[in-house]
Amino acid sequence: MKLLFSSWFDDIVDNRGKEPSDYADVRGIKQFPSDFGGGRAATAYMGWGGIVLLSEPYDIVELTYEYAKALQKSSCAKCFPCRTGTKVIEDILLGILEGRGTAEDLAHLARLCDSISSNSKCGIGQLGPTALEHALKYFAGDFTKYITGQKKRSGYQYPWKMTAPCTAACPTGMDIPLYIEYIKDGIPLGSLATIRQASPMACSLGRACFHPCENNCRRANVDQPLAICKLKRFAWDYEDLRDAEKPANPNKHTRPEKAAMIGAGIASLACAYYLALKGYRVTIFEKLARSGGAIRTGIPHYRVPNEALDREIAYIASLGVEIKYGVHFGKDETFKSLRDKGYKAIFLGTGGDLSKKIGAEGEDAGYDGFYNGIDILKQVKIGTAPIPKRKRVLVVGGGNSAMDCARTFRRLGSEVFVVYRRTEKELPADPHEVHESKEEGVQYNFLEAPTKIISENGKITGLECQKMELGEPDASGRRRPVPVKGSDHVIAADCIISAIGQDCDVFYLKEDPNIKASKWDTLVVHPDTLQSDVADVFAGGDCVTGPLTLVSSTGHGKRAAQGIDQYLRGEAVSISDEQRVENLIAAVGAYDKKEKVSMPGGWQRQEIPVCSHDLKVNSFTEVELGFSQTQATEEAARCMRCYIVGMASVTRKEGGEGK
Q: Are residues 446 and 473 in the same domain?
């Protein structure tokens, strides 16, 4: 990427004074959005990694002062060097901006930065001063102009965000270091209260989230990432097991406006939760007899027990959310009927409940023993039909749904093989799920592509496959599987499960052609506000993105609730400047897996207790038993509290001056 200047992670590229055509590339940054919305441009950025200048105009001294002020506001006051030192830096920089600075101030600032970063206990103090040091080192002339009275304040905007690598990776923006710190300090209910600010689904996410936060945990640069997901579960279990009094909703039904949620999956539940807390009257319409969406129908009982899910949803309902079952949107209710009943906003969270085809001859022939993954998991989880007994099962696919299908049929006594067209290295499933499946006896046939279902008297007897080899990478970045000529063969089986993905059924859009759908039959909405082209209709989750993780759907519900609230209040539907910086940080990347963290390692991650192997393979007993308070406290103490601050310098596009 070509930028005016970058000192990000000490990779110095200085193109100041050069023609844009002569700019050297900045290697460490893949993208940096310059459009800040509202007719504004982000021209500069300052954060834990250093300084980035996209273009002029910018005021590096003013930016440095505002950044130091943000560090001071973010300091937790638990260590003296950071709390006091950042305040002293803020005051010195203000003096420089106001024309009261001296050359000695610059040397004093450099010493303070070194002292704070060397003696602080968390990321604000350890990582924050880096950008200040870079400003002093590479922009000394800018400071001198202020000290000598040659320059006055520019008055640009400086929106900022305090986050952490784990938080920045979480689609809900959850304050992960804070909820972990509450557990470390022996305040689990404080932890749960923090979690609920970002998600009402601590039970489900604490059991079934694929934790992108842990893949961005800075502790991994020392030894092992924290068990962030399971600590979330501990916080929920602590309240649940003690039957503690749950927080009430002081705003319950304090507003007259009604909002409708379509589908009772995790996106709708999250949206309903946040709207209820704001006082709105919320009704969820669900076509099934139970709520929970994919958590209820697609995630096996051994991962998320129905009873725990019921209690989680009951709490959301208690806050003022009504759930109506057996209502099929597009048939029993429509956009018009809901509007006629006084609903002022509609959220579409209908999910993806159609299985993709595996592309094998005979898959639509209705053979006994052929199932799609979505339907068979629902059949087992909520008893929509008798559970089949099969001897030898082939699960086609390599994602998390395929793992759920494979592990489910092992518990039903079947011999199970996963058939996947690439190698184990390319499996998209969570590595933990793959490991657990092997522990439970699931076997794998790699580099196999199904071509034809073999049957006899209407019953499946096998799957004809073609051997594959890996060629050049495709659009996903993985090596493309290429057929091996003459390698056709049959794998014997009496059951084949298609588990290669899901599609969305958005047939209800025929009522309103102004709500657009993509070529993949997903709903088209604004990526930040989740508002459709029809002002009172919002959408989120799988029906917008295709198959999504639970935590991403939760984030959609939370963000949509914000937009619906703005819409119902008659305000412009938009995200805040802080959220814009949050998006910017996500684009840049808050975690550097190559960073050398100066901390001794060897403090091993706590392993969560599990049920016996016999129960794992012969029943649907919940596999993971949860942390004890001692284990949770020990694990939480490993958190390094890696808070960081990111800030943008924002100007008007037309000329760039002023606010």
A: yes
**Is 473 in the same domain as 368?**
yes
Q: Structure tokens of 118?
A: 């060397």
The answer to whether 171 and 201 are in contact (CB under 8 A) is no
DSSP strand pairing (479-483 vs 459-473) = antiparallel
514 and 443 within one domain = no
The pLDDT tens digits of the residues spanning 590-605 come to: 998 888 888 888 899 9
Residue appearing with tokens 């009704």: 283
pLDDT in tens, 415-470: 999 999 999 998 989 898 999 999 999 999 999 999 999 999 999 999 999 999 99
383 with 286, same domain?
no
Provide the number of structural domains found in the chain. Answer: 3
Same domain? 413 vs 560: no
Residue 27 lies in a domain: yes
Residues 399-430: pLDDT tens digits?
Answer: 999 999 999 999 999 999 999 999 999 898 98
- Separation of alpha carbons 466 and 463, rounded Å: 10
Q: Which range marks the domain in which residue 427 is found?
A: 356-503
Residue with the two structure tokens 């049959």: 490
Whether the predicted model's global pTM rises above the 0.70 cut: yes
Which strand (E) or helix (H) includes residue 193?
Answer: helix 188-198
Other beta carbons within 10 angstroms of residue 486's beta carbon come to 7
> Is 441 part of any domain?
yes
Cα separation values, 139 from 7, 87, 105, 106, 133, Å: 11, 22, 14, 11, 10
How far is 414 from 442, CA to CA, in rounded Å?
A: 10
Q: Are residue 40 and residue 103 in the same domain, yes or no?
A: yes
Report the distance separating Cα 374 and Cα 388, nearest Å. Answer: 15
